[in-house]
């Protein structure tokens, strides 16, 4: 594993790195877009991992002093909650081969970015929806959006699309209507995703994290599934990521 990722929660908490090594593209000559720059660590990793790619980092923040400066990197100030900004951003990037969405993790923002991102990706391109567990009904960010009502999110729709694609026969109108039942994806959106998506790989951590995200400890109460500091180690809405490949 790259030393740039070893200190990231993608590695020690979520355990995404082995899954990404299997499902990320091996080489990129076109463009990469990442939503969510934070301290710039994943941009640093992308710079070393894809030496021939042009990289775009999108964040609600203006450029921060710690973000890496490189001729191959451009930063764009975008609010994922503003659909027109997201649409304009992705349409203005040529040869988009990889999108990593690791921004606000707000369920509605995840859906907005997925819809526009999938349309803008090149055929055969890769879309990574990191931390999609925030769109799980047991997660606080899902509850913030939907309260105690049932929502439709990128997680429920992508799991539905994966189920229908796996069956290897066209989805019926009734199945599409059932998936489109909600506020994030219309019938046209679901039909479009079904036409665009070639494959969906889903990861959910099923083992203990390597160390605690809050206190760094490895002293775990294995029977209670808790760290000694009280953090829940095996919550049902935690450590999920999805890699979507667009059809060629
Ligand atoms: C999880 S961090 C990104 C981590 C980074 N990808 C990495 O792996 O090092 C989330 C980032 O999303 C940004 N963010 C939060 N809300 C946003 C929004 N509405 N639109 C765009 N970016 C947002 C935050 O400013 C923060 O930098």
Short key terms for the protein model shown above:
248 residues, Rossmann fold, two-stranded antiparallel sheet, 10 helices
- What bound compounds does this protein have? S-adenosylmethionine
How many beta-strand runs? 9
Using the coordinates above, name the CATH class. Answer: Alpha Beta
Instruction: Sketch the topology as an H/E string, one letter per element.
Output: HHHEHEEHEHEHHHHEEEE
Characterization of this structure:
This protein is an alpha/beta fold and 248 residues long. The chain has one domain (3-208, 237-246): Vaccinia Virus protein VP39 (Rossmann fold). It has helices at residues 3-6, 9-12, 17-23, 41-49, 83-91, 107-120, 140-146, 154-167, 173-179, 187-196, and strands spanning 31-35, 54-59, 73-77, 96-101, 126-130, 197-204, 220-221, 226-227, 240-246. Strands 3-2-1-4-5-9-6 form a seven-stranded mixed β-sheet, sandwiched between helices. A two-stranded antiparallel sheet has the order 7-8. β4, α6 (107-120) and β5 form a beta-alpha-beta unit. α5 runs parallel beside α6 (107-120). It is globular and about 50 Å long. The model has no long low-confidence stretch (mean pLDDT 97). Residues 8, 34, 36-39, 41-42, 59-61, 78-81, 102-104, 109 line the site of S-adenosylmethionine (SAM).
Task: Describe the protein's topology.
Layout: H1 3-6, H2 9-12, H3 17-23, E1 31-35, H4 41-49, E2 54-59, E3 73-77, H5 83-91, E4 96-101, H6 107-120, E5 126-130, H7 140-146, H8 154-167, H9 173-179, H10 187-196, E6 197-204, E7 220-221, E8 226-227, E9 240-246
The structure holds S-adenosylmethionine.
S-adenosylmethionine is lined by residues 8, 34, 36-39, 41-42, 59-61, 78-81, 102-104, 109.
